Amino acid sequence: MIATSFLKRIQGGHVGLLVLAIVALLAIFAPLVAPDNPVRSDLRGRLAEPTLSLTAVGTAPLGRDQLGRDILSRMIYGSRATLLVALCAVVVGGVVGVTIGVVSGFAGGILDRILMRITDIQLAFPLMLLALLMVAAMGANFFNLIVVLALTSWTRYARIVRGEVLQLREREFVLSAVAAGASAWRICVKHILPNIMAPIIVVATLELGRVIVMESALSFLGVGMQPPTPSWGRMLAEGRSYVSRAWWLAAFPGLGIMLVVLSINLIGDWLRDVFDPKK
Amino acid sequence: MTDARTPKPLLQIRDLSVRFKTDRGHVHAVNGVSYDLMPEETLCIVGESGSGKSVHALSILRLLPEPPAEITSGSIRFDGQELLTASRQAMFDLRGNGIGMVFQNPMSSLNPVLTIGKQITEVLRRHMKMDGKAAHRRAVELLDRVRIPNAASRVHSYPHEFSGGQRQRIMIAIAIACNPRLLIADEATTALDVTTQAEIIQLVRELKWEQSMAVIWITHDLGVVAGIADTVQVMYAGGIVERGPVDAIFNDPRNAYTLGLLNSLPDVSDAHGARRSLRQIDGMPPDLHVLPAGDPFAPRNPYATQRCFSEPPSLRQAEGAEPGHLVAAWYDLRKLARREGAA
Amino acid sequence: MPQTPPLLQVQNLTKRYESAPRGAPPAVDGVSFHLNSGETLGLVGESGSGKSTIGRAVCMLNPPDSGSIRFEGQEIANASRSDLRAVRQRMQIVFQDPFSALNPRMRVGELVAEPLLIHGRYRNNAERKEVVAEQFRMVGLDPDVMDRYPHQFSGGQCQRICIARALILGPSMIVADEPIAALDVSIQAQIVNLLADLQDKTKVSYIFISHDLRMVQHICHRVAVLFGGRIVELAGVAELYSNPFHPYTQRLLSAVPIPDPARERARQSSITAFTSRNDGDLIEVASGHFVRQ
Q1: Which of A102, A164, A189 is nearest to C117 (CA)?
Q2: Fewer CB within a 10 Å sphere, N or C end of chain A?
Q3: Does the CA dihedral B158-B185-B263-C160 come out positive or negative?
């Protein structure tokens, strides 16, 4: 039957993609979707319990936080910050990491050794400490947060990309391009990069998840997104002290993070399968 | 008047068909292959990629993963026993024991983390129920027989310590350890240098006589075939197109594909290295997803008749040829072509 | 007889691999030979003989450690990058595995056009497309397939594409490194015929590296036999095959199976392995026929 064959072909990756798409749409259309203003505090409704109903008037479906702000609206608006920061960090980290990996793998020799030492040093550095230091030195704002997250991310690309490039460098089609007189730039851009996109995309997808968790951790420590900008990590941090009295402050953002990261991991695994054995 | 008891065939394959399930449908790798192999006969199966030669050999020992492979019809009888319905245990008992097999790539056929001694004794202990000491002695004997120098000490070495040719000899040692009645070699010398190949072929020739084995030698190299075959079987697109005694096939080919293969070889006997064009076979092997209506070789066959395109020819005794020389063709090649430079 | 200078003159080419153990002989050890215009020189030998290494060294893909390579009168062994770039238009290489030699993510039309783009020829798109189409026709392919990807072709077709790409700049020399080894037997003849045709049409020279002694005899004018990184015998093809001097050459030729059952039965094969590396010099035993003592 059509239904069962359809159900058989659904994979984790499809589910992940669906969930992520929903979250992304909510983020983009936040002003239209959110029932309430995320920063409007209504101290009378402070720590209101979740009603889990979207139709009941005046109440918050996911409850209100310690300042009376609607948690659902904060979740919806917060997804913007969370996703945006993560996306930017992944892109910046990816570009830097891939460039270093390609240069290192292709050029070889001394340049390779220097770049790999730098990568090793970066990897040896405790991420949290680095983040805290940077924020302490440069202040905690959106831009700095992206830089910090990208810094902790690029090494993953560099290592993997370098490995792939080392292999690819000896493949006959690359040698063929060298024999035709192609410049190093042309070889890297036209021949090497398109053939390493698969592992890069897989790493990037998984990094997206990891960066979201990191951002939450940084916000938890107070060096991530600053109030009043909602981000899920921020909300988790603020809800920390209320866990016993008002579990919904921390639970929903926590669930949100978990759901998004799980979806991203499913997508990453699925992409790995898509790119691997078949052409 | 002699009471001639006709010898029973060692291997009887009837109407074997194998197909593979792929995303784009089924690939019909072997189509209705039937033949007999007599004890101590050396059969060379010649074909190119897509001919089905390797697939059908793997089916004999049920080494194809099922799925995606599927043996859709046929029977394979070895020494009277039907293999396609045999139990898993029966097949385990047969492999390496009644039938030995040697594959193409010696680099990947041996387990890199076990000593070669262990790999040989494993087979001996499993099938011949030898104890450790006896198995070890026999392993050294076998290595010696396949001419691995210093067998007594090399028996403790690992595969990576040997050259490609030596590894192939070790594979042969493992394959013949239990005195199988049939040895199947699938492109066993293709990956080796020509001098090493000559040595391996000589070794197999000797072993065949010593152990009274039948050999199925699968190759694409007609030179190798000329050197070892008693019978030659030419396969194309999953079927047998010609089969017969080796001299008959080389001197009196009746199938256009066989003729094409023979003609496309440069003739090394021509001492002045004639630089005329090789007689090539135009076109490409067919896509096995779709079984053609007639003779699969017809599109590339300059001698094809109308009937070739509409009706698949069956394998029959060739007219005016030696008994046992079978061909699948609607045309009569003798009238249409002449083998260039036939002996 | 006035002789035009050879197209390629290689002297004392030596190449050692860094990963090789100490004391091991170099992969290529003082090899010298020359190639004339419009000629096919065969390099034969078994695995480890150094023949592929020589091919790649001559193209400067794996530059030699020492020795001289004079191509069209110009020394290229230590040429500058820009000089080398200009030279690369004049020499090309075709590899063994046709699938591996084409970028799987590029269309075959783009792949064949790439050398033109690299060297700034035919900047006009339409003109360039026509030149590429002509190349496809020359190697027996329909130009309509230009937009397909390599995986959509068979091995033989991919090799034709590789040959088209190698010829598009009109080089005077092509190094063919086992160009037919990965192809089916019935396709090998097609490709060999194609190479011979193209040589007749364009007068390109080939260095034909192969272990297939039958094919080498068919397509080459002269043949060099390699063992242990050195040339042990070098002669015209007819001479070498009918009158081999060096024991290794003799052994090699005797090991080639002949597709003739009667003759195979009459032959005996030798079993002893050949291991000695002669340290003597290459001497000329007959005109153009050199043997290592």
Answers
A1: A189
A2: N
A3: negative
Looking at residue C220, its pLDDT comes to 93
Tell if the CB–CB gap between A181 and C85 is shorter than 8 Å: yes
Global pTM exceeds 0.90: no
Tell me how close the Cα of A36 comes to any Cα of chain C, in angstroms.
49
Q: Is A201 on the interface with C (CB under 8 A)?
A: no
Residue C141, pLDDT > 90, answer: yes
Question: Can you give the length of chain C in residues?
Answer: 293
Dist. CA B47–CA B222, nearest whole Å = 10
H/E stretch holding C12: strand C8-15
In SS3 terms, C102-136 reads as CCCCCCHHHHHHHHHHHCCCCCCHHHHHHHHHHHH
Question: Per residue in B127-146, is it b (16+ CB within 10 Å) or e — as a string?
Answer: beebeeeebbebbbebbbbb
CB–CB of A190 and C165 under 8 A? no
Instruction: Name residue, tokens 């630089």.
Output: B275
Inter-chain CB proximity C238 and B273 less than 8 Å: yes
| Structure tokens given for A180 | 């035709």
Q: How many contacts does A have with C, using Cβ atoms within 8 A? A: 61
Between the CA atoms of C264, C268, C269 and C274, what dihedral angle is there, to the nearest 10 degrees?
A: -130
The dihedral through the CA atoms of C131, C133, C135, C137 has a sign that is negative
- Mean per-residue pLDDT for B38-66? 91
C103 interfaces chain A, CB cutoff of 8 Å: yes
| Mutation target vs C (from B45, B280, B287; most C CBs, 10 A cutoff) | B280
Chain C positions in Cβ-Cβ contact with residue A176 (cut-off 8 Å): 93, 95, 101-102, 162, 165
- Residues of chain A in contact with residue C169, where contact means CB-CB under 8 angstroms, are 180
CB B178 within 8 A of CB B128: yes
Euclidean distance between CA atoms C162 and C67, whole angstroms: 29
Query: Which chain C residue lies closest to A197 (C-alpha atoms)?
Result: C105
Intra-chain end-to-end CA distance of chain A, in Å? 30
The distance in angstroms from the start CA to the end CA of chain C is 29
Higher-confidence residue: A238 or C245?
C245
Sole residue written with tokens 């999953």: B238
**CATH fold group of domain B11-98+178-291+298-336:** Rossmann fold (3.40.50)
Rg (CA), chain A: 22
- Name the DSSP letter for residue A140: -
Residue type, C87: V
- pLDDT at residue B271 in the model: 45
Compare all CA atoms of chain A with the CA of C94 and give the residue at the minimum distance.
A176
C-alpha A276/C-alpha A1 separation (Å) is: 30
Residue of higher predicted confidence among B60 and A39 = B60
Phi, psi dihedrals of residue C120, rounded to the nearest 5°: 65, 30
Chain C residue with CA closest to A171: the answer is C100
Cα separation, C137 vs C128, whole angstroms: 14
In angstroms, the CA B57 to CA B64 distance is: 10
Q: Distance from C123 to chain B by nearest Cα, in Å? A: 35
CB pairs under 8 A between B and C: 131
d(CA B173, CA B105): 15
Length of chain B: 343
As a dihedral over the C-alpha atoms of residue C267, residue C273, residue C277, residue C280, rounded to 10 degrees, the angle is -40
Q: What domains lie within chain A, and their CATH numbers?
A: 62-275 (1.10.3720.10)
* Domain boundaries along the sequence of chain B: 11-98+178-291+298-336, 105-177
Contact C88 A194 (CB under 8 A): no
Contact at CB, A195 and C88, closer than 8 angstroms: no
How high is the pLDDT of residue C165? 95
Kindly state whether C170 is in contact with chain A, defined as any CB-CB distance less than 8 angstroms. no
The secondary structure of A206-261 as a DSSP string is HHHHHHHHHHHHHHHTT-SSPTTS--HHHHHHHHGGGTTT-THHHHHHHHHHHHHH
